[in-house]
Amino acid sequence: MERCRVWWPRGRLQHEPVTGPTRLVLLGWLFARAGSVDVVVAAAIPLEEILRSFPSLEALQTIILSSNKRMPARLQEYAAFTILGDYVHLPREFEVFHSKQNHQSFGDQSVQKEHFGANQNNSIVLSGSLESGDQDRSDGNNKWEYDCSILDGFLDACKKSIVKKGNWVHFCCKSCKILKCDLNQVPVLNHLYLDDQKFETSHCHVILYDVPTAGRNHFSLGEDAACRLKSSIKKPNWINNLERKPLVFDLDPIVLALNCSNAARPSIAQEAATSTSVVLFSLHLLVQVTWHCVGIFFASVSTIIYIFIQVFQKYVSDISQYFMLQKIFRHSWKNMRLRSCQILYWPIFLQDKSLSSTVNVQYTHKAAIQKHALWLNIVIDLLMGSFLGAALLLKTEIICSWTFALVRYMTNSVLRSGCVWLMGDPAGFKLNTELAELLGMISLNAIQIYSTLWFIVGGFLRHIIWGLAFSGILFGLTVPVSLFIDVIQLATLHVTLLQWLISLIYSRQIQTVTSLWRLFRGRKWNPLRQRLDSYDYTVEQHVVGSLLFTPVLLLLPTTSIFYIFFSILSTTLICLCILLEITVSIIHSTPYAELIMWVVRRQRFPTGLFFHPVVLSSVSALDGDGLLSIKGCRKTEHLHGQSEPLVSELRCNCATFGQIIGQNYQNIFNGAALSFCKQLAYGILSGERIPTTLHLQFSRLPWMHVGTRDYWMLCHGSILSCAPKR
Length: 726
Known about the structure:
The chain is an alpha/beta fold. It has 24 helices and 14 strands. A ten-stranded mixed β-sheet has the order 9-8-7-4-2-3-1-10-14-13. Strand 2 and strand 3 (36-46) form a beta hairpin.
């Protein structure tokens, strides 16, 4: 193996020097590849705790196998959670002793016994012992190396029975304060066994990582994170080529193992004292009783709302004018149905649907966002709707007076004055008097009829405002805004009808002029092949075409002026409705849960990983313990004659505000605005029908039909699933 990467949890590195030798048992995953090996350490447990907690090797093996079965199936395909090896932590006095031995002759073996003793139960021994001390000294190496690979009976049995394929990794610690961080030790690879064969590594990279925990942080390569916004600066070609280049090694299983490392640790802690357990049990019982009361209250309220929504939906669907009302009030009907489905489905989204969320921290964070996204969207929409409803109820008279003034101004100053102006000489254009008077009289009569109808409906304006207010309080802000869109379209129906009528005349004139122009050129449109073909017209056809071409062409400016005027009015109204529709879509698609969690803890939204190297710092030439100084050089010789390992910290980039909301908005508005602008421009220029809505698609939920008792139990269970676990 040329390279070895060790992924080590920072929590298992001591911040203070130890007083005696200790041995830790390492648990995690080992990913062996061609030319490299990755060792992901999930837990480093002292050997004394394992011997104290597990009476036999079978008990430890059962815990490890159960932990491995809880892991995701994708991770189990790459590697199994097992015992990786051991880690020996020696006190600083040993390094002082070793440094002095490199500069002066060794004493007798009593020095060895003085520092470490000859306890048979001690699992840390020296290679310069009674059996091999003379031989080592006779070799002339003048070096006393320690051998921590000698295992006691328990670890040797673990190595033979639990560890798959005979893999075993042994680490020793380097205890010297040369790192610019709050650590005083670094794990150093002593030896590596793969399939019972010892491998030498030319490069060892120790990567320190913070163990991902639920509610705090996790790691991600960025593929399933929030969509990155496109940079306005064009990237050079060498950067694009570098991005297309395949990765040297696959980080997916390693990141998955890191995210599951916290759940993979076997529980070996001793139980708390009996008195403390009794107090905690009483407190937990009180909390559970409180959550049961809260669950009963919310389940009862939700069931009453469920019954009301079901009865209202059944009553409306039985009305004979149901489909007509659905077409007229399509925006408000769509949003009311969506809000009703969200209110009905909130207990389903609130339930904890999978046990795997307790293993993978990344999945836990995603499940928490999906769990709270729906009800938080409903609550925020209801709050904004309540503010709007309260404002409408308090300012009803002012809104009525402003509405009447606006309608009067639009009718008299814009529509009537505009039609009279078009019947004369608008902007100096000489129009056809008879056609202008005809179109103007039709427009004025339609405006007068609709003004009369509006005067009758105006008496119910106060009730319409109250309806908007109460719909906002009951269903949220999106429902009154959608209802306001439908009211605007009904109030301006005469403008839409006049624009449709004049556009029909305008488009027919354009098509007639185009066809007659082809006649003069001897061409004919082939609808089957969608192309222009040559055609021999007769003299009579040319005469009739000439007689029709002149009046149609001369009447086209008059029709065009009226078409432009009403197209401007209709387009303005459509743009206003589109802005309101976009507002409703933004309210529905804004990820409120993600934004709140992003403000509280940004580490829950990683968008990529990077390695931050730990820089060595210079110390004095000779410290108080007699150790030689290290002048910031990374390639210093270790106790084993190996070069010092490269040490880095695993860190992640956090998503920005734009990356959080960009993916949601892109899913809603992807291509809708561009397509709408193209259809609107083509419809205005050609006189064809112009679009009046963006046709944005929200998440559609099917209507729920369950029994009242089942729905109450569902709501009660959903509330209890949010209760804190013991």
